[in-house]
Design brief:
With about 140 residues, the chain is mostly helical. The protein has one domain (about 5-70, about 80-140). It has helices spanning about 25-35, 55-60, 85-105, 110-115, 125-140; strands at about 5, 15, 45, 65. A two-stranded antiparallel ribbon has the order 1-2. It has a two-stranded parallel ribbon with strand order 3-4. A hairpin with a 5-residue loop joins β1 (about 5) and β2 (about 15).
Amino acid sequence: MKNTIISTATREILYLGPTQPGKEHDFTLLKNEFPNDQAWFKGKNIWVDLGYQGMARHYSSSSIYEPYKKPRKSKHNPHPQLTASQKQTNKRFSSIRVSVEHAIGGMKIFSCLAHRFRNWFNGAIDTVIALSAGLWNLKIT
């Protein structure tokens, strides 16, 4: 199961999307929840991981930062590597993005998300995740 989570650098969860099957790609979920015909992220600094590659082309915001992806191996490039400046940029991006990962991990301190969820009545998983996000926000304030 997956959710789209938008978090601040202070680990506060601002947005929690509906729960979707795990086979759905991260960027597809984002495009379904935030259609690109509106300026959702205008004036915001957005730091994404490689699961959202191409977001800068689809959304009109000049501040979407994506990490560099390692080139593919080929006959002409048998040992693909990132340049030193690309590695340094990726390291800087990951040091900023780690707060989002801490927010997601912080929600999992409430054991109901860390283990297999077996209560499948209508809307139960969304309710539990929303409660965990709310409790996490309350805990960090």
